[in-house]
Design goal:
The chain is mostly beta strands.
C-alpha cells in the first residue's frame, strides 16, 4: 500500500465510483481506452455499452466539448468529446472512433474516444493520486492513476468530467 499524502492539499479527492485507496481493498475493473497515445479508464460498473461512432446532432450554445446528442433506442444522450474536454483539440471523427455509454448520477452520457483497449483489473490500493505537478484544470477530471503492465492508466472521475464548471477551449495548449 502507498503512503498517505503528507498534507490534505496533496490528497486527491476520491471520485465517484472509485473508493479511497486508504480505506478499501479488493479488485477494481475498468474499461481502458485510448485518446491518441494516452490511456484512460472508466469504472466498468459505470459502462452501459460501447458503440461505433455515428453522426450526432449538434446543439446550439454548448461548450466545444459537447459534440451534440445521439438518439440511442429512444434515449437522447449527450456526447462528450474527451480529447476536447482534456484540452487537446476537437476529435476528427471517423468510423474507427467509439462512443462509451456511461451512467453517472442516474443519467446516461456518451464519451467519444479513439478506441477501446481492454478490460483491466488491479487492486484498489494500487490507485495512485494524481501528482500536484499535474494539477491543471483538466487534471481535476482524473480520479487517480493505475499501473497496468508497463503503462499508467489515467482513471476518469465521471462526476467531475460532467459538472461543466471548466469550459476551457478545446485547442491543444
Amino acid at each position: 500500500m502507498t503512503s498517505a499524502p503528507s498534507t490534505p492539499a496533496d490528497a486527491a479527492a476520491p471520485a465517484a465510483g472509485i473508493a479511497n485507496p486508504e480505506f478499501s481493498t479488493g479488485a477494481a475493473e475498468f474499461i481502458s481506452f485510448a485518446i491518441g497515445d494516452d490511456q484512460y479508464g472508466v469504472d466498468i460498473m459505470s459502462v452501459r455499452e460501447i458503440k461505433e461512432w455515428s453522426n450526432v446532432t449538434p446543439l446550439p450554445k454548448q461548450p466545444e466539448y459537447m459534440r451534440g446528442v445521439l438518439n440511442l433506442r429512444g434515449v437522447v444522450l449527450p456526447i462528450i468529446d474527451l480529447r476536447c474536454r482534456f484540452g487537446q483539440g476537437l476529435t476528427d471523427c471517423t468510423q474507427t472512433h467509439i462512443i462509451i455509454i456511461v451512467q453517472v448520477d442516474g443519467r446516461q452520457v456518451g464519451l467519444l474516444a479513439d478506441r477501446v483497449l481492454d478490460i483491466v483489473s488491479f487492486e484498489q490500493n494500487d490507485i495512485q493520486a494524481v501528482p500536484n505537478v499535474a494539477r491543471s484544470a483538466q487534471a481535476r477530471f482524473l480520479a487517480g492513476l493505475a499501473p497496468v503492465e508497463n503503462a499508467m492508466i489515467a482513471l476518469i472521475d465521471l462526476a467531475n468530467l460532467l459538472d461543466g464548471q471548466t469550459d476551457a477551449p478545446c485547442a491543444a495548449a
